[in-house]
Amino acid sequence: MRVKKILNNNIAIVEKGGHESIVYSTGISFKKKVGQLITDSEIEKTYVLDSKDRLEHLSYLLTNTDDKTIGLINDFVDYGEKILKQKANDYLYLALLDHITFAWKRGKKNQFIRSPLSWEVQKFYPVYYKIGLHALQMMRECYQIDFPDDEAVSIALHFVNIQEEKSLLDEKIKDMETLQDMLNIIKYHFNLSFDESSMNYMRLVTHLQYFIERLRKDKNHGQSDSILFQQVKEIYPYAYTAVEKIDIYVKKKFNQYLTQDEYAYLMIHINRILERKENES
């Protein structure tokens, strides 16, 4: 492959088979000139991107990033690939380099961003969160900055992109946000703290997950059992008032109403949570 542009002593843009790539290795461009050959044995890492804009963006970031950060991100990806047993696309390097560079700059000023998806990522993407925690520890050691655990969440979501189409990832993130909204409605309505290890809590979360998927796909259960609804409403009036708030939220966000069956099931699940809370009091 031939050198098309030298970015610095360690980074160059090369052309092979009519396609441009970025190559990285310590001293790879030293004493090289445009048009000269670079052999595969000289290259530590090759970045292949699918658009000129992304190539230019990554070129800029690599040129303006120190070697320890580049090495750090390469180590992140190597570890993630081993855990997932899957090859990462090179867009991941661009996304991580962009993210880590800004995280480092914020960290030096003791400015950190809280992630609203911390709980959801830990629950729904435990393997990816493990990768994020590993990367977080490496960041703390490399920069000597006490980054919060939220950074592990952000890094985990970048790795989710390896397997998820962006549209599907966006969809899952929205579902996680909706789930957290519904749990918060219950939490603040009753002024309680959830025992996330309890079976009743896990049943509630599982039910809400399927419920949210139904809302997103706009699928109805069909006819509702009005007798069951009335019976449960009378037995669990406090749970009913909480479900009313969820119904208002659903109407506003999805332009749908809860069916009477959905009211009944949610009341039953919520009451189980309340009964456990009362027994602990």
TrEMBL record:
User: Repeat: is it a keyword of this entry?
Assistant: yes
Q: Which GO terms describe its molecular function?
A: RNA binding
- Check the record and name the Pfam families matching this protein: CAT_RBD (PF03123), PRD (PF00874)
The record, for Gene3D superfamilies, names: CAT RNA-binding domain, PRD domain
Question: What InterPro entries does UniProt report for this protein, alphabetically?
Answer: BglG_antiterminators (IPR050661), CAT_RNA-bd_dom (IPR004341), CAT_RNA-bd_dom_sf (IPR036650), PRD (IPR011608), PRD_sf (IPR036634)
Family matches, as SUPFAM superfamilies: PTS-regulatory domain, PRD, SacY-like RNA-binding domain
UniProt keyword terms in alphabetical order: Repeat
* One GO BP: regulation of DNA-templated transcription
The keyword Hydrolase belongs to this UniProt entry's keyword annotation:
no
Every PRD domain range: 64-169, 170-280
Q: What is this protein called?
A: Transcriptional antiterminator, BglG
Give the organism the record lists. Answer: Lacrimispora saccharolytica (strain ATCC 35040 / DSM 2544 / NRCC 2533 / WM1) (Clostridium saccharolyticum)
